[in-house]
Amino acid sequence: MTTHITFVHALSPLHAGTGQGVGVIDLPIAREKATNLPYLPGSSIKGALRAGCSDEESRRTIYGADARELEALESSTQFSDQRLLLLPIRSLAGTFAWVTSPYILQRFKRDLRDASIDCPAMIFDNEIASLNTSECLVSSSESVIVIEGDNKVYLEDLDLVSKTTSEEVDAWAKWIAARVFPGDDTTWQDMLKKRFCVVHDDVLGFLLNTATEIIARIKLGEETKTVDAKQGALWYEEALPTETILTGMVRVVPNKKARENGNGDHILTTLQTEKPLQLGGNVTVGRGMCRVRISESKGG
Fold this sequence. Notes:
Layout: E1 2-10, E2 39-40, H1 42-51, H2 56-63, E3 77-79, E4 82-90, E5 96-100, H3 102-114, E6 135-138, E7 146-147, E8 152-155, E9 158-162, H4 167-180, H5 186-195, E10 196-199, H6 201-210, E11 213-218, E12 234-239, E13 245-252, H7 256-260, H8 265-271, E14 277-278, E15 289-294
Parallel strand pairs: 5-10, 6-9
Antiparallel strand pairs: 1-13, 1-15, 2-4, 3-13, 4-5, 4-13, 6-10, 7-8, 8-9, 11-12, 14-15
Helix pairs in contact: 4-5
């Protein structure tokens, strides 16, 4: 068994819903009960990867037998829920910032340890935990989200004092950028590093309730092309904004068929895809277009 870290980068608004809401938003996104953090169910990413696998033999080997098949065959892959890592927030400078918090990074550390992955940021003694609600940490002196001369970062309606950059924040920004945008994609790596921002957990909690995307939709009559008053005229949907980055884990446990074909190393290679996937709901209206990256299980 090997454990790998997954990264999901939203290229369009991502709606992983929970059905009908009870508040102002009719169709909210899925959130963890205790933390209120958004997540994408593991079944969503596994289903999209399975649907994109055109070879029937590989599909059965990696994802298991279809429910309609008589012969049972367990899946060789176990996907966790994909949880929030970086939330894009409007910024007065630099257009937007990729925002995270101490709690999210601590939880990410736990996943990295489970996957036996080394990260330079893990050697530090959690310097970022000392942040207060009026401060933030940016990745480097080249940050594009800090107002020059003011030493402040303006996120939505919040103004935060930018503290002196720490080695820990620089290490996190550099390491995450290299995994979300691997290879020679230096342009996007630099964009992430220059927009990386750590805020207090309470500040992120506020942004999670005010900075998600709310989309108003209407239903038109098929013949009249006017608002269909009989079947619901107007409703509001919530979505994670474009550029959101989620992370999770996938465990590879080769089933009988995979072991017959070798040691199962080919499974990870098959899971890697350069093509965007559509995850979550409302795919027919362009929601949920995402890039998916899967890390190696060892090495930093």
